[in-house]
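> call design_seq(struct)
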């Protein structure tokens, strides 16, 4: 077992080397086809903003949310030059 999915804060001391995350981690990871870091999805943490998987960002001049930039960087799609285009 590598992850525990829960919506409540649990005693993690009994689960050594296991990540405890909220359900949104699964949905976001599946939507963007990348295993996202779990630190933002810990029980009790404020979750990152939801980004719709149905919205595509085609134009360079189009606004790109910061969260989407983070996800694209994790996927290796966005380079450092994209940070300046907001």
């Amino acid at each position: 077992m590598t992850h525990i999915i829960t919506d409540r804060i649990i005693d993690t001391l009994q689960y050594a080397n296991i990540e405890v995350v909220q359900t949104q981690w699964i949905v976001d990871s599946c939507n963007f086809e990348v295993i996202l870091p779990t630190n933002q999805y810990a029980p009790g943490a404020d979750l990152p903003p939801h980004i719709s998987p149905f919205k595509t960002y085609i134009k360079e001049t189009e606004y790109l949310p910061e969260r989407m930039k983070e996800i694209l960087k994790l996927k290796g799609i966005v380079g450092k030059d994209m940070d300046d285009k907001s």
